[in-house]
Amino acid sequence: MAKPASVLVIDQDVTTLEALRVGLSNDGLRIEAHADPREALRAFAVARFDAVIAEVGVPRVGGLSVLARVRQYDPSVPVILLSGPASVQRAAEAVKDGAFDYVVKPFRVAKVRAVVERALEIRRLLAEVERLRAEVGGGGRCDELIAQSPAMAPVVDAVRRAAASDCAVLIVGGPGTGRELVARTIHRMGRRAAGPFVVGDCALLGEGLVESELFGHVRGAFPGAVAARPGLVETADGGTLLLEAIGELSKAAQRRLLTVLDMGELRPLGGTSARAVDVRLVAATTADLAAAVEARRFRSDLHGRIAAIRIALPELGERRDDIPLLAQYFVKRMCARVGIEAPTISSEAMAQLLAGSWPGNVRQLRETLERATLLADRGVIRPEHFVNPAAAADDVVGGHVGRSRLAAGP
């Protein structure tokens, strides 16, 4: 018979301790509760636990927070923080430092239970991945992220941390830097991989109907609402919702989104009752939201919630060491798509790729290589194959590639 998972609870409020001890014990977990952090950490050092729940305001022990102490003992143990409304920012900062997630007081025990279950499941899955990786000698690649440059090392590390957690993520990067790819990688590497991955662009949502498109509506909610319709949040239930251009959301939509994140509940436009939803939010923007928060265009509490893990994507010019790998990848993928043999990239062509300014970043590199692959003759991509899109399109006839017309240069 499997041994029940053990959870250490640390909180100075004895009422909170008793509520969690009783509520979580009913789910078959072994709970040990302490109001004194020193006693709690001594217990952790002796017995070890599968998860820790700790109040954000618990006093430091030996100059270190409970999170830091637990990570010293065993960095694989998930730490879930309990935060009062005034300490949400501190909790969000702690998630950046390695905490699994946080729950805002006052809370329902069911909410804490759901977070604990996610933490334990993700820990189990990560242990299994490490076991399999050790068996096959895996190198720990971060799915489809092609990255060997120093500029991408923090990105890969943040993606792994995000995949191991279930909190919101903010991806910041210019056009073409791969925001959606990073979001999809986090989704595929996490526990929600079997669930839906839904993308919404806040800049393109219908004007005046943003709340309806995000949160859905009931019949008769507004003129023309002849039938109930689910929104993007409900469609993503059980999976991941990527919201591009998050800074374009209206204040009303921001308020509703914060409610979904904090309470796990959704009330459609015109509805009178809320329904439970389980959605992991990944927000993306081409610019930092700090200025929007400063100008009061974006809620500071929502910013703190979605930026629990912040991933800043570098421009392609900052990660030139990745260009050769990316180029080979795009060539092979294009050839597999159209059913032709992959050409090689000449040294002159590669030198031109490395010297390029790439204002369109990885997307521009991909499009350039895809066109060059279709234009390449004699199995070699040369600098003269880096031409405009129209020329490339003219050379694909009837599903096969004809002999290319060489251009004078890019």
Can you describe this structure?
There is one protein chain. The chain has 3 domains: 6-132, 3-Layer(aba) Sandwich (Rossmann fold); 150-314, Rossmann fold; 318-401, Helicase, Ruva Protein, domain 3 (Orthogonal Bundle), CATH 1.10.8. The protein is globular, with a radius of gyration of 25 Å. It is α/β, with parallel strands linked by helices and 410 residues long. α3 (66-73) links the parallel β3 and β4 (79-83). α2 (37-47) packs parallel to α3. Helix content is 42%, strand content 15%. It has helices spanning 14-25, 37-47, 66-73, 88-96, 109-136, 153-164, 179-189, 210-215, 232-235, 251-263, 290-294, 300-306, 323-338, 347-355, 361-375, 389-394, and strands at 6-10, 30-34, 51-55, 79-83, 101-104, 169-172, 197-201, 240-244, 265-266, 275-276, 280-285, 309-312, 344-345, 380-381, 396-397, 400-401.
Report the principal-axis shape: globular
Largest sheet: 5 strands, parallel
Structural class: alpha/beta
CATH topology grouping of the largest domain: Rossmann fold
Quick structural overview:
The protein is an alpha/beta fold and 410 residues long. It is 42% helix and 15% strand.
Keywords:
five-stranded parallel β-sheet, disordered C terminus, 3 domains, 410 residues, Rossmann fold, Helicase, Ruva Protein, domain 3, globular, alpha/beta
Give the topology, please.
Elements: E1 6-10, H1 14-25, E2 30-34, H2 37-47, E3 51-55, H3 66-73, E4 79-83, H4 88-96, E5 101-104, H5 109-136, H6 153-164, E6 169-172, H7 179-189, E7 197-201, H8 210-215, H9 232-235, E8 240-244, H10 251-263, E9 265-266, E10 275-276, E11 280-285, H11 290-294, H12 300-306, E12 309-312, H13 323-338, E13 344-345, H14 347-355, H15 361-375, E14 380-381, H16 389-394, E15 396-397, E16 400-401
Parallel strand pairs: 1-2, 1-3, 3-4, 4-5, 6-11, 6-12, 7-8, 8-11, 13-14
Antiparallel strand pairs: 9-10, 15-16
